[in-house]
Design brief:
mainly alpha, 73% helix, 10 helices
């Protein structure tokens, strides 16, 4: 039991650090600020290592930059804490397993997409590429080369499916109907879930985005809907509830 407690504490802190780094890069990479990832957003003063300790530095400095005293975005402590919590829950629910590793990857990707797509309307390639490589690698390690190939082909099929949907949508609506980032994200779905569950997660993501689309329409808000956060939420939910969903599909298609 003591080992479990120590493991949970360790994973929480690993999650804090990972979530903090993920949040920083997701906020600054779209602005081409690679050289300022460890600096203040306002004065660009580079922080010392101990001033980057997740949560601690924010509390000690009262949520302000210690140099220019500009308020630091609440996104940093909130998303950092959420990441630590998700890392911990992944171990509590799954133990050390394939499911735990995938949940951790999905948690960081979820944070990255929520930050970059809601703020900048862009899904960064770097987190998607790294996540895809790790997913396929774990598929090969845990389930063998055959499963790796099936997952790779599933991702490519979903990619082609989304390309067709985009072409049809562009023709009907006379404008870009689906962003390129969303299509690449959908391919990632195929790597994780396979074709059938990927389509279900895409449908769930679309339903989650529907109330926002209705609100934008009724309020006459002329603004693009960031679709990525809703899609990744659909993927996260389908992965967590994969077994009940599979059982339900088995009953339906019998």
């Amino acid at each position: 039991m003591l080992i479990d407690v120590y493991t949970i504490i360790l994973l929480f802190f690993v999650g804090l650090v990972s979530g903090y780094i993920c949040t920083i890069f997701s906020l600054k990479l779209p602005l081409k600020k690679k050289e300022y990832v460890n600096a203040c957003d306002n004065c660009n003063h580079k922080y010392k290592w101990y001033e980057l300790i997740p949560l601690y530095s924010y509390v000690i400095n009262h949520g302000k930059c210690p140099y220019c005293h500009q308020h630091i975005s609440l996104l940093y402590p909130i998303l950092t804490f959420i990441s630590g919590l998700l890392f911990t829950l992944s171990y509590i629910f799954y133990g050390f397993s394939y499911e735990m590793l995938i949940t951790i990857i999905l948690s960081l990707l979820l944070i990255s997409i929520y930050v970059s797509d809601f703020k900048y309307y862009v899904i960064l390639d770097e987190p998607l590429i790294i996540s895809s490589i790790l997913i396929l690698l774990f598929k090969a390690i845990f389930f063998g080369f055959k499963t790796f190939l099936i997952s790779l082909c599933s991702g490519l099929l979903i990619f082609l499916f989304m390309i067709i949907i985009r072409a049809l949508g562009n023709k009907i609506f006379k404008q870009d109907s689906i962003g390129g980032g969303d299509i690449k994200l959908a391919m990632f779905f195929g790597f994780v879930l396979g074709v059938r569950l990927s389509i279900i997660s895409l449908v769930i993501g679309s339903f989650l985005a529907f109330p926002v689309a209705v609100y934008y329409t009724l309020s006459k808000i002329n603004k693009e809907i960031p679709f990525g956060p809703f899609l990744i939420t659909g993927l996260y939910l389908v992965f967590i509830f994969m077994e009940p969903i599979k059982s339900f599909l088995t009953i339906i298609f019998k």
